[in-house]
Amino acid sequence: MAFFSLPEIRRYHYKPWFYNAEEEKRRERRQQIEREVKHEQGEQTEAPNFIHFARKERQKSNRRVLVIFLFLAAAYYFLQHHFLS
């Protein structure tokens, strides 16, 4: 007969990461070379894609604000002419 239930012991599982500075430098250099090759071949790099994405999202946001504004203006016009005249 137990009056209290004790929680189970929680185990601590630590997995150390191995950091290899040389591998990191090689990976960064490889990525830089790939970007340079793409640039020489005339392909777009990552930055213009991000700029294009940000511009597209801003345009969507502007359209959304315009639609909400037009809806509120139409509702105001309807309510004013329907109930106040």
Structure in a nutshell:
With 85 residues, the protein is mainly α. Helices cover 68% and strands 0% of the residues. It has helices at residues 21-40, 46-83.
Give structural attributes.
single chain, 85 residues, mainly alpha, 2 helices
Q: State the low-pLDDT regions, or none.
A: none
**Largest sheet properties:** none
Strand content: under 5%
Mean pLDDT: 83
- Number of separate strands: 0
Distance between the termini: 79 Å
Radius of gyration: 30 Å
Percent helix range: 55-70%
Number of helical segments with 4 or more residues: 2
Encode the helix/strand succession as letters.
HH
Structural class comes to: mainly alpha
Shape: flat
Task: Tell me what the structure shows.
The longest helix is centred in the last third of the chain and has 38 residues, at 46-83. The model has no long low-confidence stretch (mean pLDDT 83). The chain is flat and about 75 Å long. The protein starts with 20 loop residues before the first helix and ends with a helix. With 85 residues, the protein is mainly α. The chain has two helices and no strands.
